[in-house]
Automatic annotation (TrEMBL):
This is Ethanolamine utilization protein. Residues 61-100 form the (S)-ureidoglycine aminohydrolase cupin domain. InterPro entries: EutQ, RmlC-like_jellyroll, RmlC_Cupin_sf, UGlyAH_Cupin_dom. Coiled coil: none annotated. It holds the Pfam family Cupin_3. It comes from Apodospora peruviana. It comes from the Eukaryota.
Length: 121
């Protein structure tokens, strides 16, 4: 296969992250082929939907680099050193491996993220 694509409908069917916080929806869309499971540079693209919640827990420590772009809503990011950003549609971000991040939103946020990892099963 030379390339893959999905229509916008996929954006409206982001699955609940299980197990995961009650406000996080996350679904892999594209990934390095499973037959290349030992590929040295895997890449996986995912849709990420975050809803507002009062009790914000940090995401697990990142063991891979990840970048993304906010598509809808407002995404707040805070790292373990207290750096913060309020991102709006069109804004991009990069999370370095080893980081511990807190994601939050005043209402909701939708992003497309790409990580240097294999697809989650």
């Amino acid at each position: 296969m030379v390339f893959e694509w999905k229509d916008e409908g996929k954006l409206h069917r982001v699955p609940k992250l299980e197990p995961g916080p009650p406000n996080v929806y996350f679904g892999d869309v594209f990934s390095t082929s499973t037959k290349d499971a030992d590929a040295p540079n895997p890449l996986t693209g995912s849709f990420f939907l975050l809803e507002q919640i009062d009790n914000r827990d940090p995401a697990p420590k990142y063991d891979y680099d990840e970048t993304g772009v906010v598509l809808k809503g407002e995404l707040h990011i805070e790292d373990e050193q207290g750096n913060t950003a309020k991102l709006l549609p069109g804004d991009t971000f990069f999370i370095h491996r080893g980081s511990t991040i807190i994601f939050s939103t005043p209402r909701y946020a939708v992003a497309y993220k790409v990580g240097a990892r294999h697809q989650m099963h």
